[in-house]
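Re-run with default settings, no changes from the original entry. Doing this only to confirm the output is reproducible before filing.
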Amino acid sequence: MKAIIQRVSKASVTVGEEQVSSIGRGLCVLLGISVEDTQKDVDYIVRKILNLRVFEDDNGRAWSKSVMDREFEVLCVSQFTLQCILKGNKPDFHSAMPAELAQPFYNNILENMRSAYKPELIKDGQFGAYMQVHIQNDGPVTIELMSPTGPTDPKQLSKQEKQQQRKEKTRSKGPSESSREKGALRSRQDPNASSGADGDVSSEREP
């Protein structure tokens, strides 16, 4: 999932001649949902949007308060074009989640955001509509976020699976067996070598 977060003095969404949503000071968030997104991506993006410190505190110190700290508004707008992949000069949107799946997914994002913050301060546009988004960027301040997702390349997935198998084999040997092997190796290298505990005791007995 991609999010373009803009700190705004005000923002609004118009469909046709009708203004469907507006906010004062706060954040305007453009959201691009990927076909690979899950609830884990939702949790990450919602947490980051609400806790991103892009506002000043009461003393004017910059980058110290979040939208929740200041009790400002958030305007979310679904924008599938953020998932664009260029093929030559032509934008391709196959990585964007199809509309019939993206709409309930987007509504879930809004619900999560309203549950984590004050629901009356979370506004949105009109999903799937041709919108005019009016943004008065404050700063300007614009931040791009991308939720961390796992690799989709089969070769990379296979590599990760092999690494995990090696870790599991290492853990299955157990710490006691590994310690015995290390102790035996030290003994072969130096027959007079003592354990760390013995060394500590002998050092304490020295005058």
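Residues 53 and 64 are 5 Å apart (CA to CA). Helices lie at 39-51, 67-70, 99-116, 154-173, 175-189, 196-205.
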